[in-house]
Amino acid sequence: MTQQIYKRDGQRPKAPNYPRYGSILNLVIFHAIIWGIAATLSGCDPSTSVVLSYSSPSLQLNMEAGKYSAQLTKLGWDTEGTGRDTINLLESPVELQLSKGNQVLIPNVTSKMIGSQKIQYRFSLQNNKQLVWEISIGDGELDMQILSDDNIAAELDKIELVFPFNPRKALTSIISSNWTNDSRFQLPVIMSAPDIGQMLLTSVEDQDITGYTEGNRSEAWVRVKIELPVPTKESASNLKFTPVVLPIPDGYKDDKRWEAARRGWFNLIQQSCGASGGGKEVVGVWANNVLSDPVSSLLYMLSDATLLVPELAPGVTMPPILRRSIEYFIDHETTDYGLVGYTAAGTPALETDRGDLDPNDKEYRAGDHQMVMDGNPSVIIGAWSYVKASFDTIWLRNRIKDLESVAGYMEDRDIDGDGLIESRQSGNDGSRPPSNPDMAWDAFPSGHKNAYINALAYRAFNNLADLQKQLGEHKQEQRYRQRAEKLKAVFLKTFYNPETGWLAWWISKDGKLHDIYSDIPTSLAIANGIISEERGKEMLQRYWKALEATGFDRFDLGVPVCLRPVPRQEMEKSTEFQQFLNGGCCVSNTSYTLDALYTAGMTQQADMILDAMLERQKEGTYPNGGGFQNGFVDRMGYGAEYFDWQGNPVGYEGHLVYSWSFLHAMLRKEPVFRELTIGTNYQSNSK
C-alpha cells in the first residue's frame, strides 16, 4: 500500500469519516481501494512510490519518492500558488550517486517513513557501514540530510546529488553569483524553473558545497549536480530548499503589476552550461538559455535587470552575474584591436577581414568572421551598470584600459568623421553571405550607418564618461562626453525618414535609406535620450497610426517587429510575413516600444500593451505555464519566443531570455527607474 503524506498550510487534513463495515477485512479492502485510487490520480505507482506534498500561499510542493529505490521520481513546485507543482520537472529520477575512485557504487537500499513528513533511505556499504539520505517536508521548505553513524571515507569518496531536469518541459537550471576557478558554482544557488517557481538551495551548516551544470544541446538534456562531502560521525550535510518570491522593488508602488511579473522576472536569467561552445570558461555566463549561446550584443538587457533588482535572494545577487559575463567577453572574445565577438561559439573577425565577405570562398565559416558592432557598446554599458550596482571601483581601475580599447574600436569606426560609427558591412542589398550580421537583429543584411547601433553607442560613450569621472580622469571624461554629443548632433538628421515620419534602420554604403517599418530605432533613440520627448512623441504617434491601420490587436504578444513585409533583398533569409523577424512578434522588441511610449508621455497606449502582456505572463498559455516560452525547442517555427499575429509560435529557441526585458519597461515607467538604468545621458528635456 502506498504511503501518502499530505500537508496543507502546515496542517495535516482531518481523517474522513468512512462508512462502517461488517468486518475488519472489508475495512482493510476499502482503505486499499481508496489509497490506490488516490495514488493513481496523483500519477504514482501505489506499489513502489510514496507521495509527499505540501501547500501554502508561498509554496506548493509535489514529490514522489521510491519505496524500494533511493529516488525522487517526481519533483514539482510552484511559488505563486497556481497549481503548477503538478508539472514534473524531471527527465529521470533525482538520485544520490556514490563513487569510490572511478567506480560508481550500487549498494542495497532500504527505506522507511519517519512520521508523516519524512522518508529515509539507508545505503548498505562495505564493512557493514551505512550512509543515510533523509528527505523531509518541513514548514514551507524541503530538507535533505546526508549522514552516517560511522566514518565511511574508506568505503566511498564521492557523493553527488543529481537533478536530471527535462528542458523540453521547462529550462530548469541554477542561478548562481558564486563561481570557483574551475567553473563550479558554490551554494547558495537558486534552482529556477521558468514560469513555475524558484527554490533557494542552501547548506544549513554553511559547508563549502559546490556543484556544476552539464548538458547537451543536440540531445536536449540538462543535469545539475551537487557535490557533497562524505559525512562522518561528527558531520552531516543538511540542504534546505526554500521558495523565492521577489519583494517589490523600493520605489515601485504597483503591487498588482509586480505580482504578475515577479515570477517571470527570473526567466531572463539563464547561465550557460557550455553546451553551445566556448569551453569551460563560458560556464556561468549569461546565455540565451542554459543550453544555448551567450551573446555579447544584448548584455545591456542584463545590465538593466541588475540595476532594477540587484538582489534575488540571500547570497544570490545580480552584479557578480553581470561581471562574469562582461569579463568573459573581454578576456575571451575581444581582439587585440578592440572588436568584441558576437557569440561564445564564434570567433571575432580578423582586422584584415573585409566587411562584405565572399560567399563563394570555400573556406568561409561565418562563425570565424564575427563583426557585430553592438557587442562593443553593450560591454561598456554592462561595465557601467556593474560598477553602479556594486560600487566596485577597484575592478573599474583594473579594467578601464580594456574598456577604453573596446571604445577605441568604436571611435575608429567613425570612418568619415561625422560622429556616427560605421559597421564594416556595407549594408547594400545582396551584399553579404548568411550569418555575417552587424548587430543582434541578425536576420537583416544591415550595415554601414546603423541607427540601432549608434543609439547604443551614444549610451555607451556617456556611460564610459561617467566611469572616467569616478576615477577622476576628467580629460578622458570630456573626450567620451564630446564623442556622445557629436554622435547625437547628426543622428536625427541622418536617419530621419520624411516619408514615414520616424527613423529608418540603416543607411547602406551606396546611400540607400533602409526603413523596414519598425519602431525599434526610433523607440531606442527616444528612451536613450538622443531625441527629445516632444519630437519622439510626434514620431510615435505616426507609428501608432500605422500600427492601428494594420488591424493588429494581439497586444498580449507585444507589437510586431515591423508593420509590413520586409523586401526580400532586406532579409538575410526570406520568410513569410509575420514569421520570425519579418513582422513577427518577438516579445523583446516591445520593451523598446514601451520605454519610448512612457518616455514620450503616451501612457495610455503603453499601459494597454503592458497589461495585456502581464496577463499572458501571469496566466500562462502552454502546459508548462509559460506565456512566452514553451521549454527548449531548438527548431525553427516552433519556439514560443516569436509569434505570428494570431499567436502561433514561430521561433526556434523556445526560451529566449530577452523576451522578459519588457518587464524592465514596467518599472521604467517611473522616471526614477528610467534614470537609474540609462544614466546621465537620459534627460527629460533633451533636444
Task: Briefly characterize the structure.
This protein is of the alpha+beta class and 687 residues long. The chain is 29% helix and 20% strand. It has 14 helices and 27 strands.
CATH topology tier name of the largest domain: Glycosyltransferase
Strand portion: 15-25%
Secondary-structure class? alpha+beta
Say how many strands there are: 27
Instruction: Please state the CA-atom Rg, rounded to the nearest Å.
Output: 27 Å
- CATH architecture designation of the largest domain: Alpha/alpha barrel
Helical percentage:
25-40%
What overall form do the CA principal axes indicate? globular
Task: Describe this protein's structure.
- By secondary structure, the protein is an alpha+beta fold.
- It folds into two domains: 4-243, Distorted Sandwich (Beta-galactosidase, Chain A, domain 5); 255-681, Glycosyltransferase.
- 29% of the residues lie in helices and 20% in strands.
- The protein is built from 14 helices and 27 strands.
- The strands form six sheets. Strands 1, 2, 3, 4, 5, 6, 11, 13, 16 and 17 form a ten-stranded mixed beta sheet that branches. An eight-stranded antiparallel beta sheet has the order 7-8-9-10-18-15-14-12, with no helix packed on it.
- Helix 3 (299-308) packs antiparallel against helix 4 and helix 7 runs antiparallel to helix 8.
- The protein starts with a strand and ends in a 9-residue tail after the last helix.
